[in-house]
Amino acid sequence: PLYSIHPLGTRTADSFSLRRRRMTEKNRKGKRDSTLTAIGNMLSENYHLEEDMVRKATEADLQVINEIYAEARQFMRDHGNMNQWVNGYPAVDVLKEDISRGELYVMVTAEDRIYGVFMLHFGEDPTYARIDGAWLDNTEYATIHRIASDGSHSRVYHEAVEFARTHYLHLRVDTHADNKPMQQAIRREGFQYCGVIYLSNGDPRYAYEWISPVFDCH
Q1: For residue 60, which of 116, 99, 101 has the smallest C-alpha distance?
Q2: What pLDDT, on a 0 to 100 scale, did the predictor assign at position 28?
Q3: Mean pLDDT computed over every residue of the chain
Q4: Distance from first CA to last CA of the chain, Å, rounded?
């Protein structure tokens, strides 16, 4: 599931705009699933922002990552979200699994100081199999989960989405009904509300989807 971001930092958003990789018009068309798979395979170890960059997390980053998640949990509580990320979620074992699969990413400054973290998974998410509502499209997709920041940078969610959009044409996300800041951030990025999905424990989550305008889904 997708979780709360920290309140905006003090630095300007322009400093963190992403240099997006453009696909040619030829690559924008063709078979949908094969195109998505090819783009998914293009994920690089390091992705540069204008000043900072996104890179894959390692176990050496876990102490800082856990500190960021602790700040995010406190931010949720301070803003009335009492039921999400309880009991120290995400656990270290969950994060280690993300790292082992190469799916946990950190946002770092030029000095390699971590200020944000998120998980990006390409492929089916079992919790999205059932939805009270309807998805926009059934082609392969990527999902952003477990995003958080330390509050020092603005628009961290935007940066994570732009990173994902650089590699994938079809994205899905979900968040808690009490997570109003995240719902607003998701809508700002152009995601469309699709309905309610359910976690493995039965807890409901609001589900959203984004499909690239250059990707003809029909």
Answers
A1: 99
A2: 43
A3: 81
A4: 28
